[in-house]
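so i finally got all the pieces together for this one. its two components total, 954 residues if u count the protein bits. some of the lines might not be protein, just check the labels. i wanna see the whole assembly predicted at once instead of chain by chain like last time, that was a mess tbh
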Amino acid sequence: MTLSTGLIFGIIFILMFIVVMATISEGLVKIAAKHQGQNPENYGVLPNDLPSMLNRGEGSPNYVSQGDHFVDLKKGFDINLLGAASLEHGIEQVHASTYALKPKDFMGMMPIPKVVVEEGGTLKAGDVLFYDKKRPEIKYAAPVSGEMLKIQRGDKRSINEVVILADKEIEYREYNLPDLNTVSREDLVAFLLDSGAWPFIRQRPFDIVAEHEQLPKSIFVTTFDTAPLAPSFNLTVQGKEAEFQKGLDVLAKLTEGGVHLGLDGRGTSSPSEAFSNATGVQKHWFNGPHPAGNVGIHMHHVDPLNSGETIWHLDVHGVLVIGTLFAKGIFDTERVIALTGYEMTNPRYVKARQGICIEKFVTDIKFQEQTATTDKEGKPVNINRKAVRLISGDPLTGKEIEPNGYLGFFDDQMMTVEEGDYYELFGWLIPRAGHPTQNRTFPGAFAPSAVYKADTQQNGEHRAFVVSGEYESVLPMDIYPQYLLRAIQANDFEKMEGLGILELGEEDVALCEYVCTSKHPVQKTLRQGLDMLREQG
Amino acid sequence: MGLFDVDFWKKIEPSKDKKFAHGLYDGVFTLFFKPNEVNHAGTHIKGPMDLKRLMIHVVIALQVCYLIGSYNIGHQHFLALGEHTGVLDAVHLKLVIGLMSILPLFIVSNLVGLGIEFYFASQKGHPIEEGYLVTGALIPLIMPPDVPLWMLSLSIIFAVLLAKEAFGGTGMNVVNIALMARAFIFFAYPTEISGDGPWVSAIDLDNGVVDYSFLHTMFNGLFESFGWSTFISGQPLLESFTGATPLVLARTGGWEAVTEVYSSTAMFVGGIPGCVGETSKLAIIMGIAILLLTRVASWRIMFSMALGVAVTGMLFNVWGFNAYMDVPWYNHFLMGGLMFALAFMATDPVTACGTNTGKWIYGFLIGFFGMVIRVMNPAYAEGWMLAILLMNVFAPTIDFYVVDANINRRLKRAKAK
């Protein structure tokens, strides 16, 4: 017994010795080369293209041209859910009778923005609807033409929705388009602010609508979305390639640092020509599980944000709005929306304008349910129970809406999720309801391509932090998320900034919240930290 | 359906005013049923992993240690008598002795610890948290098999009260709770746990005879009906019996002294005296396999601790000051509580380092300090409890410097712009 264990340990020791010797000698050779005045890159003991031998090789898809920046991301987790939209019946063009903009979609906006149109007043698509009194230059425009129907208010008279009764035929506002070749940056910014296209530009830090006084060091556009059941941007940009390029040209004028395009390098589908053949931008390909499509991840690997700097970011919808504005002179927010969810009888794609009322898409879903239970005395009683939750956006970062609600400003996905308020006998030990997981205590983790039905079950109770390394395994950034959350909870501003909170948006840590064993509200804590820092100035 | 029916539980739910009763009810209810909480602010879907599941997998990994360790208690008892000396002789008798030794420890450990936790949880108004599931399973494995129950209770009260609840409960403790309980007994009652008394079960050392209680003799009728051997009271112990553990032997005579009494196979499988959990390396390795396969414990800590032990052992071999230092470094893994500490104590996620880099440093230093205390300490033959407690205190410091390096990296990047 001792001989064999000694042998094994001896072999391991020898291997370690070889690796250490190789590393040391590699370093010494490089130092010697530098002394001689030679380029240390060309000298070494280990094979030079070892990284590429191990990483890329056949990995990168064939539509990636050599010389483009390619980033392989290992960390993350793809959540596979049932209810994906299908292209079987094509993409239907739909139009609803009401549309709405929700001020609460915008972080940091005052609860009661100034609505410039009166109830009953007519407006065209692109006309100013409301603005934030703290930042009056940024105008929020109506996505459709029609009559301003009503202002839905929430608690403390805050505005939940500004609802527009839409015309059958959309009329557009007339714009005085500046000439892109001669216009100055200030005039361009002023035009965008007034046009209603500005809110599509967001910024890091804080993930709010971009502050126009700041000069961004670069602008990032993400062209693929890896969130669960998110639609592909290829569908939206189909037929609008010229407008997309126009949008990129406009953005290029807004910054010195250039526009960076984040492209889909996963190899599952080749991106649209508009993305892979875009000009005037720097292209970066990303390959990996979710959150490989998040703009925060792209920023971190291309041009990381430092304290005091600003980066602006948009998705494809935002670029198309700006591009269509300059190419055709109209404010057109039309996009391809995915109607998804297991409860949908026909999950599909539709073409619709921003803020559409989704009532008519979910008429066949039973949101409320009568369940028969017994009350305390044992008498049978029927109670109304919410059976299905409706989400605007993806299930990780989206917001819950009512069955007659409206799609969010930045959202291009609607999802139905079953409410998981059921008790499961020994559910923590032998679960019957399956949930997607990469955790190896579940056999499902060894079958990563399995697809699951989503539900809103919390799967445990909120506890203190116990497990370490969990968040880091799904966040492909050089950040320690748990220590950041602790700094936020301790109101330690210096540490928050030092640990990189400014680089993060809630969508980046949404997956951390998904896998958290202690069920910590990670996104909420991050938002608290970001708001704290933003208020300090 | 009774116990497995939600409606039954809902009927017997005590009102929320009776804090302790409701806390107790809640703890048991959530053990049976996954609560029906849905996700509110934040992600609408959440992964299925939760703390209970994490804890139960560690307990599952410990089960082989329990099985082989309990059997070994019985085996060591009969070695002290000089009877049934073969490993598989009188399996029934050895199992009974083993179980009757370990079950009281397990029951008392869980009752006392959970009782304190329930009390605190009801006072603070939050539900009972699962941290004690693992501690309660670990404590019987690191105690001497025949430790007096009152001593065990005192140590658990000390550990849970001062080392856990005073800091905030599950997830907030600085030091490992099970080791704290062991340390209490080690420092407060050193003479009571030294010598052979508490290390061999069911013997009366003063009179040199066996000491069977009713728990053992009640099985005699059953065994007689099968025609198997029974417990015979009043038998004398072997005079030559010492019950020396391999560590004690190694300290005086080096590896040769150890191999005279115990073979390497016996040390690997677990036929040696010692704490219940630490004797069978085979059982521990099976537990490690479960922990690593399910990624419940950190492989970095385990690997770096083994590395620390190996490197320190090799250094001692080179130094060769005394017979103990000459024990070949790979044999240290077979002796004492090293493997158990490596698998279950060092890897406790709450008290270990949180950063991956920190885990490497943490594990390595535990291996280093543990070996130093084991080999160079004249008073006590084992060092893992002390090494792990020491590194638990330093883990936040290590993490601080790793996180600080991250912050400085970011600052340097900003300055370079």
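The mean pLDDT of chain A is 89.
Residues 21-55 of chain A form one domain.
anyway lmk what u think
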